[in-house]
Amino acid sequence: MVGAPGAFDETLEGLYQLALNGAKVEIRVVLHAMTIPRLRQLASFIYRRLPFVEHVALMGLEPMGFAKRNREKLWIDPASYVDALSDVVGFLANRKMQVSIYNLQLCILPRSLWPFARQSISEWKNKFAAPCGGCVVRDHCAGFFASANDDWRSQHLKPLTLEDLSDVVA
Ligand code: SF4
Question: Is the shortest distance between the CB of 141 and ligand 1 below 6 Å?
Fold first, then answer.
């Protein structure tokens, strides 16, 4: 991803050194157009080659720096990759690996993924879109990065009502 020769091997070596020295290791995977096609292979690699990893965070893209300059190559509507995300969360969770979803909104995730979704965006750079005001799960949703304008938001956002939750709010 970073395009630097040797970066992959150096990263692996660093991770093994951390494990050997008893460090707690978290792998963060940024979800975008270049990582989604091989997400399952990456999860499989983490499970087989990095079994000491304590936590895998699958993270929606933050529109900053490198990502912002490369929007055309990287941006993909998160609603379009929820199937791949579900598959990988299931793959890791079924193998007893701790897995979380960061930076993605509840209304674009299937209900089966809600237990894995965290309010991961720091308060100082967290905001919500105008329609979120009437959404009944706003207090549990990750919301958006303050740097995310409409170009960096899913086209499938939908404020949820109590009716949408009628199966759990009886
Ligand atoms: S409408 Fe807004 S607050 Fe509600 S789930 Fe979607 S992004 Fe979150």
Answer: yes
